[in-house]
Request: fold
Amino acid sequence: MSSLRKIGFVAAGLLFALSACSKNTTSSSSTASSAPQSSAAASPAASPAAATSPVAAAANTAGASVYNTNCASCHQATGVGVAGAFPPLAGNPTVTGVATKVIHIVKYGLSGAVTVKGKSYNGMMPPWGSTLSNADIAAVISYVRSSWGNAATPVTAADVKAVAK
Ligand code: HEC
Reply:
């Protein structure tokens, strides 16, 4: 009788240990499987909408390299700027607004107070008309107007040439 009871206790203990163990594995495997899920959900959002035409893609590549060389140091590679110092170009209605105004800013520079997305800036944007070609200015403006969620029409070198001081 007592030996049967002992076996019963041991069996109960074993069952308990087994169930505790299996609970552990299920909980740890569910944590592990949630990580790939969230990264898979993030990756489509991270990749920007693909350029639709080869011409637009080529202009975008040229614009991206002009941007990364000349503009990213202040406005940042992702166009978010630096609060209080360099305004964001991403989600900036001036950037996606009237093209000739954007051309004027990039070609001849900008200084004085501006308010962008509710924050004020009063810095100095250097003029690029003397260091970049009209084609490079056109490419970089087309790039900033169509990157990071911005969706505005591209500009041409002829457009840039036509904007007088
Ligand atoms: C040395 C830092 C610096 C660099 C490099 C720079 N910018 Fe700027 N940019 C500024 C500052 C500062 C302002 C805001 C000027 C002001 O406060 O009046 C500005 C403003 C702008 C604006 C106007 C934003 C608005 O809402 O009025 C545009 C467009 C712009 N920059 C595009 C560019 C492009 C394109 C390049 C590269 C060719 C570039 N910037 C390079 C500092 C810089």
Summary: The first strand starts at residue 110 and ends at 111.
